[in-house]
Amino acid sequence: MEDERVLVGEVLGAFGIRGEVRLASLLETPETLSDLPAVELRFHGGRTTLRKVLKVRRHHGGVVILFEAMDRTEAETLHGAQIWVKKSELPPLGPDAWYEWQLLGLRVITESGRELGKIEQVHYYPANDVYETELALIPAIADVLVRVDLEANELLVRDIPGLRKDEL
């Protein structure tokens, strides 16, 4: 469904005195948020609101954004809010790049045919991402990943020792 929304980040807290907020972004290029008509903010407790992003900038390895008509006091109330956008508004990715929502639920199989479960969670680390299934932790590196097939809903990985959680 094209208008289905996906999570792209979470507000970590207010930043500075001009109403900006720090963002934990799940996007490679969070700057594209300022190109969208609006993003949806979802708060704990179920409240939602739409906001226009005026500016996105990188700051000391993090991301800072400014919403339209926002001051410092209001920015403080956004702590913990999740940012959601329509799938149809996401920028296309290059080859060998996927959005988290595309990976979740993929069936993981080794080259020898061992089933490792479905991807339940993606962990983001500086060295490399890790895909977690109920049975395995799969480092998202070229030496391990063989093929991501979104059409077949499948991730093929090399059959190497230590992938299964019970082998750690």
Question: What would you note in describing this structure?
Answer:
By secondary structure, the chain is mainly beta. The protein is about 5% helix and about 40% strand. Strands 4-3-7-1-2-6-5 form a seven-stranded antiparallel sheet. A hairpin with a 4-residue loop joins strand 11 and strand 12. The protein is elongated, with a radius of gyration of 18 Å. The termini are far apart. The model has no long low-confidence stretch (mean pLDDT about 90).
Could you provide a short overview of the structure?
The chain is mostly beta strands and about 170 residues long. The protein has two helices and 14 strands. It has a seven-stranded antiparallel beta sheet with strand order 4-3-7-1-2-6-5.
SS field, number of helical segments: 2
C-alpha termini separation: 39 Å
Strand order of the largest sheet: 4-3-7-1-2-6-5
Q: Give the fraction of residues assigned to helices.
A: under 10%
